[in-house]
Give the backbone structure.
Amino acid sequence: MERPHIFKARALSKIYDMGEVQVVALRDVDFDLREGELLVLLGASGSGKSTLLNILGGLDSPTKGRVWYRDQQLDTADEEALTAYRRHHVGFVFQFYNLIPSLTARENVALVTEIADDPMTPAEALELVGLGDRLDHFPAQLSGGEQQRVAIARAVAKRPQVLLCDEPTGALDLETGRIVLRALERVNEELQTAIAVITHNAAIAARCRSTTESGHRADGSVERFAR
């Protein structure tokens, strides 16, 4: 039996007006993400991956088309509804870690747990990503991969239904990127969090490609691999 949808998007398009020039970021994209799925979207820079993720996360709106989070239609939601949606249902991980240098790993994660309704403790979240022994280290005392895993712990500590990851390995070497992806896989497996990861790195995407259940082009340039 198919799992319920987390996201369903139909005929999404996004066009940016740059003076006299129109830039088409997405054209008639259909997209689905189901409960408990870990998805890798692979495509070259400029192929619309981040635009799609921003629309799913309620950070941007489509020029046309429809997108739903479960039964909530996001493309018609007002800013108040989108703010509540982002706060309660979505975790974000970006290429740059955005950690506060003067706070420890535990304290960086606590920034989220203090405002969430039913959070994990910072220690639980950091243990989940393999940093249980780095709780009181400052970002400057951590490697790039460890800092990214703190960012993942911070995103998942509020127990979001979905985790959206925009080039989370983009600033890392290949082996460190694989360690970060393993942390995401553990979050997916243990919490059953639906995860969408975008990357231009085929070697990173190949880690999920070996267990692909389905693969198709989400548009002319973005390839989808489901785990």
The two ends are 16 Å apart (CA to CA). The first strand starts at residue 5 and ends at 18. DSSP finds seven helices and ten strands in the chain. The beta strands are 5-18, 21-34, 38-42, 64-69, 72-73, 90-93, 162-166, 194-199, 215-217, 223-226.
